[in-house]
Amino acid sequence: MSIYILPAILALVIKLLILGVSVKGKHQSTVFITMVLILALHNLCEVLGFLEFFESGPKEYLLRLYYATTVWVAAFMLIYSSEVSRLKHGHFRAVLMSIAGVVSLLMLYTNWIVAGAESLGYTMTVVQGEQYWIFRIFVLATLLAIIPVIVVGYRRATEHIVEIQSIYTMFALAPLMLVGISVIVLMSLGVRVNASAFIPIASTLFLLITLKSEYRHNLTDVRRFIPFSAERRAANQIMDICSRYSRDKMSYRDGINEIEKILVLQKYQKEGGNASATAESMGMPRSSLYSIFNRLNIDTKD
């Protein structure tokens, strides 16, 4: 047994703990819990692949199961991203799951995609079948589709919580997507790659961050930590005003006016300089918003 099994075992234990917390939680979605379960099964296949007592026959079937669960991992990552982004599913989910089911069955019961298993250092790797490109295209396309799904969901979001959850999901997926895409590209170039020590860690990090985002009442708006974002700019400006006020460099009334100006301008800029949309999102008549503009000396386009 190799020492490289330790990250996979640790990742599996953490996934099982996350699964337990998710099942007992009141706010976790069915998609999230299913995704955790599939990732735990995927991780278990990685752990068993390290064990020396598996002979050639069981090892080959174990590798087939590993690749079949990889297909479902990619599918549920995309499904979860669409759920977080609040995008209308239509028949998308059913079609995606049908394709994933067909591809995984081909892996398990034919040699078209997975033709066998061979040793690779401390573990094993796949012998590619003639139709291995089906697996490669499915996983690559699914992973790449996650990015526009989250971006579109973020841009169309009408709720503050959807924006924050979309950012959390993108940050969580980045390491896992990078590892997955890199492995697929390298194997396409003929490089023999085994990422058994990296994928479990990246997938566990993904689950830990998304588990945090599932508890919506306790989310930190990470946008205020992103350089050049409007939220970070506004947060820095407000902190500067508080600092100046605490050092008696600004009066109470001036401080209140400056903070109000920052908040109004941020909302106005977010609505693309549309006064009507800004007034509606702030819950006031357009005339009241213009009164605020005049009082705070805010120049507008309209």
Automatic annotation (TrEMBL):
Alphabetical keyword list: Membrane, Transmembrane, Transmembrane helix
Family annotation (InterPro entries): Homeodomain-like_sf
Keyword Transmembrane belongs to the record: yes
Listed Gene3D superfamilies: Homeodomain-like
Domain of life the protein comes from: Bacteria
Transmembrane segments: 6-23, 30-51, 63-80, 92-113, 133-154, 166-187, 193-211
UniProt keyword annotation of Transmembrane present: yes
Protein name, entry field: Regulatory Fis family protein
